[in-house]
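Hi everyone,

Forwarding the result from last night's run.
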Amino acid sequence: VQLQASGGGLVQAGGSLRLSCAASGFNFDDYAVGWLRQVPGKEREGVSCISSMSRKTYYVDSVKGRFTVSRDNAKNTLYLQMNSLKPEDTAVYYCKVNVYSRDYWGQGTLVTVSS
């Protein structure tokens, strides 16, 4: 299982970024996938997740109405559209999948939001 996140960067408060996560090594269509973030010195926080066929989504309260999770099963890719970014959204963002009861994490992508 491999997950590769990309799309992070430096953005001013109020700006937008779109994260992508390219998945391989498993049947992407069959699994829910999600995004987590981590600030140095703090535990990873679940941000959003989406069911295998996109029927269900979840967002942590702090990002509701600003972030949108989506997936393209034909491209084995997970997305996170982040709008109205705030300095407190600054973190390393990771994509995650649980396959056969084991968690897999991709290499994170850094999002920095300046005030």
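The chain has no helices and eleven strands.

Cheers,
N.
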